[in-house]
Amino acid sequence: MRHYSGDKKKLPVLKIFTLAIIATIVFASVLDFLNIGHLLVRGPKTIIQLVTDTGLKSTNGRTNILLLGIGGEGHDGPNLSDTIILASIDKNGKDAALVSIPRDLWAPTVSAKINAAYAFGEEKDGGGLELARKTVSDLFQIPVHYAIRVDFSGFEKAVDLVSGIDVTVDTPFVDPQYPIGGKENDLCGLTIEVQEIDGIKTEVVKDSTGSATPLAQITDKNNPFICRYEKLSFKQGPINMDGKTALKFVRSRHGTNDEGSDFARSARQQKVILAFRQKVISTQTLTAPTTIVDLVKTFSSSIDTNVTDDDIPLFVKLSQKINPEGIRRIVLDADRDESVLVYGDPQNYGGQFVLEPKNGTWTDLAEHVQSEIFKLEEQ
Fold it and tell me: For 52-61, what is each residue's pLDDT tens digit?
């Protein structure tokens, strides 16, 4: 395994527009770049940072940033991370890799799915960001230097503030089970009660005819709580998406034509990243001070991060070096022959739907992620 060692060399400045929003995730420094004037009046230190290669944390020539997206208020499990991405950027800005981490991946250090790490930290002492950062670092044996969390409300507002984004849908799909906010626990006219089945007290769902189905046997295919969902449909071709539509496009998990896989979902997230980046740096946005101010206000209330003000100019510098077309996408899923994950036995995880390493070895999973991140450097 390639272990990280101490590295006293500082990375050059970097800031990545294309990581600004990933389904629900935004880099706060994107907005500071748009309003970069205020950075220059902070003094000589900031100006030096903008023109030199000092400042950002790094290890072995790379800076790693964890990006989280949560539902926020009004969503079931408001602090669960629906989107988890590890971004790794080399010191010259010539290589950037995005590791898409499925929310159902089991994290041994917290004895739960990885999407619960932020929520656990928030419940304990408000340290959600730190626990999520440490959990990902321990899982892949890679230091995570920075972390950023944004909620979905900020994502929707940001897209609407720039008058929507232009996205081309490559594969059309229909999702009959997109969750409706606020209806997560709606019984849809059914009842849930406890019955004794084979001598075991079991929760069952009963319909108006009295027919009962054990709650544990309900799956996506036989889910009776149909009022909790709406049907989505995306046709092939270009479409201008408002915030709500863009959010549905990247969060959909039950699409036809294989669009329900984590691999496909990750590809849609990347499309939204690039589309948002393009809109933010467009002349239309850059020449609209009111829009910039509104974006700053939106994100300031939607973001939790350990990125400091002193880090901002460092993130700014590399934004101009990174080619968005060259960003490498690394997906961890269980839907393809080459996938490194498999579906775990629910009996081993308290009945939960869980993903685990294909061979059951967490060390191998860490080695795989490390080898993918350093692939170009080792060729």
Answer: 444 688 888 8
